[in-house]
Design goal:
three-stranded mixed beta sheet, 14% strand, 2 domains
């Protein structure tokens, strides 16, 4: 495989060939495994030099090296990610040490801890979780380790379902249904296909959100907050009915100690946040399980609210910017989402 110096020369040559500015890029580390090359640069400006405008430079480099994938990662981003992963590890360790995890879930939480430590050790490798899923998705679940996943059919909750099954949870999924204005057919299609593919029990929980829908369409509220609260209340009722002690959501932002919360003897796990997942990692995993990528931001209700009351767009954009600041979304991905708001 190439050395750092050889890669620098190749990048410089490609930049000259396509008319980019003649600069000397800096590479901190390189890692090559399973036909994937990870190039770690000192910071984001150096990352941009190797990627090139429109990804042209890194695309040409991949063709020249004849390898499957090249990941360009800024070390400054890795520092934050590594720290957030260390917080997740410490939080899970503390929960186990303090005997706050019921005995029937101990093995699953030990699986979580093992995978967290592996990702932390190879923080630059974006295929760790994907490889774990490939190797463990067909494992038999632990019958007593029951969990309920709030499955919306979007990318994050779909990923959470896949990862939870690979961790040996005994998974059941529930989708809160208040009409197609909130849960349209394309989301339902993802839900049905994924649960069938993974052989997971699923239930639609019908509920009335007409007050929220009416207030939103009259311009009185941005609906996401009230919709989320209502959804949680329906899911909590289902947890009580089925006597399930663990609920999993697809939240990406609640990292560290907020990724697992114990309240009223219910353990809430924000699985993507716990593992400090990025949207590109989630997208690659979901693709393997035929989860359809839903273009645009949000449900039909929020689309109508944005069209009728443009001043509410800022709150949705703020959500995208929060994910961008945290490193979950790349700026290009964020821009694409914002254009649909």
């Amino acid at each position: 495989m190439y050395t750092k110096e050889e890669l620098i020369r190749e990048v410089m040559q490609i930049r000259r060939e396509i008319g980019h500015e003649d600069v000397i890029p800096e590479i901190k580390e390189i890692h090559y495994e399973n036909d994937e090359l990870t190039i770690i640069t000192p910071d984001r400006p150096e990352k941009s030099i190797i990627i090139g405008k429109g990804g042209w430079v890194v695309g040409k480099l991949r063709e020249k090296l004849k390898i499957d994938q090249i990941h360009i990662v800024a070390y400054t981003d890795l520092i934050l990610k590594e720290y957030q992963m260390s917080l997740s590890i410490r939080h899970v360790e503390r929960l186990l040490e303090e005997n706050r995890i019921p005995s029937e879930y101990i093995t699953v939480f030990e699986n979580i801890l093992k995978l967290l430590k592996l990702k932390h050790k190879f923080i630059y490798n974006k295929s760790i979780i994907e490889r774990h899923i490939d190797e463990n998705i067909n494992n038999q679940p632990i019958p007593e380790a029951k969990c309920l996943i709030a499955l919306s059919g979007g990318a994050d909750s779909s990923f959470s379902t896949i990862l939870a099954k690979s961790l040996s949870f005994n998974v059941k999924c529930a989708s809160v249904f208040a009409g197609t204005i909130i849960l349209p057919s394309k989301f339902q299609r993802n839900i049905n296909n994924l649960c069938k593919k993974l052989d997971i029990e699923h239930e639609y929980l019908e509920t009335d959100m007409n007050d929220v829908i009416r207030e939103a369409l009259e311009g009185n509220i941005h609906p996401c907050g009230k919709c989320s609260s209502h959804t949680e209340s329906v899911i909590n009722k289902k947890l009580e009915e089925d006597d399930i002690k663990v609920v999993i959501y697809g939240d990406l932002l609640s990292t560290g100690s907020r990724s697992i919360i114990i309240k009223d003897n219910i353990i809430r796990i924000n699985l993507p946040a716990l593992f400090r997942m990025e949207k590109t990692e989630i997208k690659n995993i979901n693709k393997k399980f035929d989860v359809e990528k839903i273009k645009g931001y949000g449900c039909p209700l929020i689309v109508q609210v944005h069209e009728k009351y443009p001043h509410y767009r800022q709150y949705s954009i703020q959500r995208v910017l929060r994910e961008t600041r945290s490193g979950i979304l790349e700026p290009g991905e964020a821009l694409e989402l914002i254009r649909t708001i």
